[in-house]
Fold:
Amino acid sequence: MSLPPALALGAAGLAVNQSQETGQNSFELVNFSVGSVKIAGLKTEHDRDSLEIHQQEIERYVQQYGLIIPEYFPPEYENLTGVPLVGGTIKSYEKRNALFTWLSQTGLNQSCGRVMVLDPACGSEFIASFVKGAVATGLGGGAVAVKTNDEFSNLEGNTKNNVSRRKFLKVMAQLAVIGTSTVELSNGYMAVENDMRRVMVAEKLTWLGEILEPGIRPLLIYPGTHMNKIIYYSQNHQERQARLEVYHQYLGEPAFNNLMAWRYWERGEQGGWKRVGKSSG
Structure:
């Protein structure tokens, strides 16, 4: 598996200091370390109602950290709004992800002005293939499609659903051996997609010690259910590597490396955001 040299950081020196979980929709700040990097994790939902409740607290938090790592960052996928089929899904993303739209427009005005995106789901390639997968199932957009599409097969250019279904069942069997519960697996594609994203984000967190300048402390922003798993995988090297190998075999080299890329943004002098870096995965 072709991964960056930062992989050698492994699990050495990992430590976690996580506050008590108060429910999957809780709003709280947790602190944990990955290698030499101390990370603050802000657990919050990202819908409009949650933003209205916690906006002032979020503003205060983002001003305190040298790098913001959100789950999504709208400038990454806003150029797809006019693409047939994809555009409608992007608009629904904007409604459900009001927090991230607000962050990109005004919420980070008083912050460091630096954003790094680690989640493969923020990338335009992932989003486009996600919608194609929904269409391929004949279910179109919406909640049902979210639970039944196979974006992995589209990333590989494989449109034969019977083949991708067999591959998907193999992935589920491999994950079950590693330790994924039958309850999680019962959610099908959605469970695998979420797990893949969390494992990949956790792996990329181990690279921060080589990417960031010394002393920079990032703020990671995710809902609690995602955050808990990301932290868990960041602290469990062997399980993380086993899961990455499953996804690497399933996706194939080009698609896997594409999703393992990270993106870096800075606010421009004239306003707006400019992507100033992207790794090759």
The chain is about 50% helix and 15% strand.
